[in-house]
Amino acid sequence: MTSSAPTGPTREQGMKFAFTLAAVVSVLSAVLAWRRYTLAAEVAFVLGALLLVAGLAFPTRLASLSRMLTGWGRRS
After folding, report:
1. What count of other Cβ atoms lies within 10 Å of the Cβ of residue 26?
2. pLDDT digit of tens for each residue in the chain (76 aa)?
3. Annotated domain spans of the chain
4. Is 28 exposed, middle or buried (0-12, 13-18, 19+ CB in 10 A)?
């Protein structure tokens, strides 16, 4: 009998997750900069850049962050 437990994310899934989250954080950074919250905008920009780098360097290691934010792999 085969197990129906979810497997880890593929490289493509990890990259898609990281790039989507980086895009959302980048939009947030732009809105913060527009509203003149300079420090918060800079922090959000750096976070978005780090997510892009993480998505390129090791996308499969973002599984715990993905599960935490999206509930992916949660057993019912």
Report:
1. 17
2. 555 556 667 888 888 889 999 999 999 999 999 999 999 999 999 999 999 999 999 988 887 787 788 776 666 5
3. 19-66
4. middle
50, amino acid identity: L
Which pair of structure tokens corresponds to residue 61? Answer: 């290691």
Measured distance CA(72)–CA(36) in Å, rounded: 35
Q: Which class for 11: exposed (0-12), middle (13-18), buried (19 or more C-beta within 10 A)?
A: exposed
Q: Specify the residue for token string 């990890």.
A: 14
- Residue 8 per-residue DSSP state: P
- Unique residue bearing structure tokens 């090791």: 58
Q: How far apart are CA 38 and CA 63, in angstroms?
A: 31
Nearest to 32 by CA among 44, 22, 19: 44
